[in-house]
Amino acid sequence: MKLILLNKPYNVMCQFSAHLSRPTLANYVNVPGVYPAGRLDADSEGLVLLTDNGQLQHSISHPERKQTKTYLVQVEGSPSKEQLKKLSQPLNLGDFTTQACLVKHIQAPDWIWPRNPPIRQREEIPTSWLCIILAEGKNRQVRRMTAAAGLPTLRLVRSAISNFSLESHPLLPGEWMEVNL
After folding, report:
1. pLDDT under 70 in the chain at which residues?
2. What are phi and psi for residue 156, nearest 5 degrees?
3. What are the backbone angles phi and psi of residue 105, rounded to the nearest 5°?
4. Which CATH architecture has domain 1-65+163-181?
5. Domain ranges within the chain, ordered by starting residue
6. Cα(21)–Cα(12) distance, rounded to whole angstroms?
7. Domain 68-161, CATH homologous superfamily name and number
8. Tens of pLDDT along 23-55?
9. DSSP assignment, residue 123?
10. Does 43 qualify as catalytic in the annotation?
11. What are phi and psi of 7, to 5 degrees?
């Protein structure tokens, strides 16, 4: 049974099959029989777990298993206490309501790599970093949450899934390592 930690680069599709205009995981990982346990949007970066075991994939990615995922989110603006509270409580996003989660305003992580291409900068609008830890992960959920709170996402990095983290397993974008279970 294989478990691979990959730091998925920005603008890479979270799939092994070919894509018309973007690179995929196959451009970075040449290990037969593995597939992602969960996904990240092309415009998100960070930790993706790959496995060749269906039961392990299910235990990592199925919503009923409640595996925590940690996201470092660079947002436009400076969050107020009210915005942080709104993000941490169940939030109605129209098609579903999020579960409560942990949200903290943090300093820019010193271990994080520069994004290529860089995020857009607006001199008159500050940016801030949030750490959001949740046990669900619906399509574009974190981006939709921050937008609903009035803090548009500029950069989204998944830094951890359960006990596996990029802070304790430093990998640059596109790098991967196999871990023992």
Report:
1. 63, 65
2. -130, 120
3. -85, 125
4. 2-Layer Sandwich (3.30)
5. 1-65+163-181, 68-161
6. 10
7. Alpha-L RNA-binding motif (3.30.70.1560)
8. 999 999 999 999 998 889 999 999 999 999 888
9. T
10. no
11. -95, 100
